[in-house]
Each structure stands twice: as structure tokens, then as C-alpha cells.
């Protein structure tokens, strides 16, 4: 978990990932939508590219401008982003409700549920800590 937070555990990093999921791939667009200081966002985008979350592609030569695209590793963050949004909507919304409702392609509000990939049973907070095995050092 700590390794993951080193890359995406900062507010502007997660908001940049959210923006690319929403189709906003250009730097100025991201700055405008999330309100990040330009130098801070530039540093976060560099980190996300170096970590293999984003791929940077040039779309203009004069001046040089780039768009950011999700790699497979970046796409794997989708459930994390959706779950964080869902948690915030449930626990931090104002009296009027969440600021936006995201719908699944079926037309219903997009809600997540954590399930075991092997058996399909919903995951819930266990009454005792889960067991885990550390991988041997190589």
C-alpha cells in the first residue's frame, strides 16, 4: 500500500488520473478543471508518466504540447477512483447530495462492490484480520 501511495497518494495525482478517465487529457484543461498550481501538476504528471500510469503523446510542435493517456497500469486504477468517489458521495456530500451522478452503460448509477475474484463472494470487513503470506525475497 505504501508503494502505491508514493505514486498516486497525493491529491493532485489522483485528480489528474480522474481527469484523464473523464477524457480531459491536456495540461491546461486539467489545470482549469482541478485548480492545481501549474508547477505542482506538472511535477505530478511527470511522476505518473515515470511510474507507467500515463503515456505522454505530443499533439503540437510549436509550441510543444502533450496529451496524457492511460496505460494498462493506469486503467487498473479505475475501480480505485470509482470507489473513492462513491465513498465521498456517501460520507462527505452536502445536504443536496453529491455534485455529480455517474451512470453505468446500463443507465443506473455506477456503484462498486468488492468481490473475491475466485469465488465471486462479496468482500466485507472480516471479524478477524485476513491472513497473508509474504513472498520470499529474490
Main CATH class of the largest domain: Mainly Alpha
Task: Please count the beta strands (DSSP E, at least 2 residues each).
Answer: 2
Structure classification: mainly alpha
| First and last CA, distance | 20 Å
- Shape, principal axes of CA atoms: globular
* Average pLDDT taken over every residue: 90
CATH superfamily of the largest domain: Winged helix-like DNA-binding domain superfamily/Winged helix DNA-binding domain
β-strand percent reads: 5-15%
**What is the third-level CATH name, the topology of the largest domain?**
Arc Repressor Mutant, subunit A
Topology:
Layout: H1 2-8, H2 11-21, H3 27-34, H4 38-50, E1 54-60, E2 65-70, H5 72-75, H6 78-91
Antiparallel strand pairs: 1-2
Describe this structure in words.
- By secondary structure, the chain is mainly alpha-helical.
- Helix content is 41%, strand content 9%.
- The protein folds into two domains: 2-75, Arc Repressor Mutant, subunit A; 77-125, no CATH class.
- It has a two-stranded antiparallel sheet with strand order 1-2.
- β1 and β2 form a beta hairpin.
- It is globular, with a radius of gyration of 18 Å.
Concise structural overview:
This protein has six helices and two strands, in the order ααααββαα. It is globular, with a radius of gyration of 18 Å. The chain has 138 residues and is mainly alpha-helical.
List keywords for this structure.
mainly alpha; 2 strands; single chain; Arc Repressor Mutant, subunit A; 2 domains; 138 residues; two-stranded antiparallel sheet; 9% strand; globular
